[in-house]
Amino acid sequence: MTPDTTPIAEQAFETDDQLHDMLGHLLSRASIRQIWLFFFGADHRLMEPIMPMDDHPISPDEMCDTEDLGRLPFGRVFAERVAWITEFIGAASVVVVWERVGPPKPTVLDLEWARTVGREAERLGVNLRAQFTLHNGGVRQLTGAELRGSAA
């Protein structure tokens, strides 16, 4: 089988496996603790900007003072900003990648952040298509059971 040589911007990423492959190709493996945002149009094509952010607190519950929203937990502020960007660029969905050095198994903090952002995205009406971790060995999708807190 011949590899797809279509530029990433022209490809539609309709399945989780396609997302996983694309993210693995772009990100490879973790080097620092940061968050990546990937926005997609209604046609499942990757949109700009691709946004890395490396200055978020350890816990999504850490309080944050903002001029427009007041004092809120950082996880809620983060989700509000993601919602604003999603609307501003006209994206249909967003994928979040939680990068951190370490093994593939999600940490308590990975899941705390992912669950918080998932709840807030739902509250805000943001189509959070999927969440992944980027670790020492590559990319791993967080499962529904993990995000619901029912993983073994």
Describe how the helices and strands are arranged.
Layout: H1 16-27, E1 34-40, E2 46-53, E3 63-66, E4 70-73, H2 74-89, E5 93-99, H3 108-124, E6 128-135, E7 138-141, H4 144-148
Parallel strand pairs: 5-6
Antiparallel strand pairs: 1-2, 1-5, 3-4, 6-7
What does this structure look like?
The protein has helices spanning 16-27, 74-89, 108-124, 144-148, and strands spanning 34-40, 46-53, 63-66, 70-73, 93-99, 128-135, 138-141. The relative contact order is 0.19. The chain has 152 residues and is an alpha+beta fold. It has a five-stranded mixed β-sheet, with helices on both faces. It has one domain (11-146): Cytidine Deaminase, domain 2. It is globular, with a radius of gyration of 15 Å.
Strand order of the largest sheet: 2-1-5-6-7
Q: What do we call the CATH homologous superfamily?
A: Cytidine Deaminase, domain 2
**How many DSSP helices?**
4
Total beta strands: 7
What structural class do the secondary elements suggest? alpha+beta
CATH topology, by name, is Cytidine Deaminase, domain 2
Helical residues, percent? 25-40%
Radius of gyration computed on alpha carbons: 15 Å
Calculate the mean pLDDT score and round it: 93
Number of domains: 1
Main β sheet profile: 5 strands, mixed
Helices and strands, in N-to-C order? HEEEEHEHEEH
Low-pLDDT sequence parts: none
What would CATH call the class?
Alpha Beta
